[in-house]
Give the backbone structure.
Amino acid sequence: MRRSMLFLPGNNPNMLINGNCLGSDAVIFDLEDAVSPAEKDAARILVRNTMRYMDFGGCEIIVRINSIDTPYWKQDIDAILPEKPALILLPKTGSAQDALEADAYITQVEEKLGFARNTVGLMPLIETAMGVENAYAIASSTKRVQALFLGAEDLTADLQCKRTKEGKEIEYARTRLVVAARAAGVDVYDTPFTDVNDDEGIVKDAEYAKALGFTGKSSISPRHVEVINAVFSPTQKDVDYAYEVMEAIALAKQQGKGAIALHGKMIDAPIVTRAQRTIDMAEALGMRRGN
Amino acid sequence: MNKMVKSIREAIQLAGLKDGMTVSFHHHLRNGDFVLNMVMNEIAELGCKDIFVNASSLFDVHMPLLDHIENGVVTGISADYISAGLGRAFSQGVLEKPVQFRTHGGRPSDISQGNTPIDVAFIAAPAADPMGNCSGKYGKSACGSLGYAFADAMFAKKVIVITDNLMPYPLQDWSISEDWVDFVVTVDAIGNPKGIVSGTTQITRDPVGLVMAAHAAKVIEHSGLLKDGFSFQTGAGGASLAAAKFLKDIMLEKKIQGSFGLGGITGYMVDMLQAGCFRNLMDVQCFDLKAVESIRNDPRHMEISAMQYASPASRSAVVDSLDVVILGATEIDTDFNVNVHTDSNGYIMGGSGGHSDTAAGAKLSMIIAPMFRARLPIVTDKVTCVSTPGKDIDVLVTQGGIAVNPKNVELTQRLKDAGLPIVDIRELKEKTERITGTPQRLPKGDRVVAEVIGRNSQLQDVIYNVL
């Protein structure tokens, strides 16, 4: 379950060692934008050692490496892969070819380490106009791709438009990414909301992302984590309804019917799938059935 | 009758100060105070020796005290809190006799019971009239409450009011009344307003501090104490203020009206009063300008003396009616004993203030502290100095989990039921040491440089010199 993903600068030891206390489902150790070229090697070692020696419990670790057009990305993978991050976040992925190039090198390192293929997943970061246009091809390029990730800051620079709180300028990219990811059968994560002092803005932005179909949302501020988790968690009403759906469908099966009505609405396969997903998430969150 | 005298020197002379006597000061002007230094300079110039200084707290603005110690003018110190610069010197043993640390409640208790008699008390007054009625609420040096000065004024043999704002008689809304005052002196300035109160006190932006604050607010929410009539004290530290902000949100959402907020009062507590979270504030010391403005203008915001605040010798003290207090720690041990006197190198850098008093009185006393500072773990096997005994501490909140004192069986269950991350304090220590390693104990000196006197007037612990 990844409702929230929190970016932590790879060159900040205090943030890294406290990363598992900040409430997010996943942390993204950043070796890219947060780290200046002069500190790339130090950050790489710091992130590697944090992963090696710290217990992050249920908090998943993702590492944003440097993009494949830099001299750093292979060294990043060499250092990080032995520590088995859940995912590698690949910045500036513009085409299926980019994803395949990263996949090929990760495969090579996995083999060297004796890991099974696809032990470490890939999450292309879509932050260019080309990336958006190629989103489906990227998402379906290799089995290693587990999710797409929208990066709106670089994208709006590439689109030559201003990044706004309302986000109209990324509307197309958001919907395009959701459709592409779902078509490819992978998850999709929304861009961070960057105003750390706007407590209402983050709620609206997260709710909008959820309404569009995003699996979860990333954040650059620990202050946003709780809101994101709440927005992307099922409500008690959702959970109760999901159990009702499963009971209704079980009854339908017993009675030999293909479909059954609940509260005057027909229950069909997509509703059952969604209900099962809600129950799975509720169980993972320790939520119980209410009334 | 004329109580006005021309100078501090004349007042000291008229008060009959002699070698070996005790003088006292209060600390509402904090690091902006001019009065202690002005008075001690006059005492030194008058040639007095062997003076005992009983101050409610000492700040680094009072560093000139070290010269008076070196010259034999000052030979004894009692304070409830000593900031790091002076603390370092005391830890190095500049004073032959150990510094006596008391608590904000223990100090007036000992004064009122005659254990620490004061010969001459000096009251720094932001406003006073010629007969000595004085207040902290008005004037360029306004500091709000004068709570810590009451015991000094009531029990000292002679009382001298020093003001930079002489008002016509009678001063309205006085705190300290003329019947306790012997002499009044005017000076150009009693303090630097910038050091007296901070412009604003800010909640922390540190993510770890915010996580701890959120945990702390949830502990209070699920403690069973958060209901109408709830009472609360918190410090002015960033994480404590953030906890107060989160608590305010919970109280407003649940429409809970508390009875009172207590303590050193910050603008955040004033916000809670104004938002309807409390009926009253009870204020022994103002921490910022917003608190000063509030105590001056809002009758719900009331000044209290340190005796009413926390003295165990009082017939009752407000701390005994307190539900929840949030406190800090430089170290806490696995028996929940807390150190707030010394830093990780053993140097004096604080003191109990109201820590022990509120912890003893409150139904729920909670420590907020990170698992480690720099590379040093906060939870240890045995604290360097017992400032507040573990029996009075109920909960430790860190970013890595919440440890409940095992004596609180019901509270532990409540917090577990609420889904809060409860950990055994020993596990917390081990978890931290897996990150930081286990630090070696510092070697301590063989000379006692300070005595920590509990609120019951008994010796609780001692602090050794730093090698």
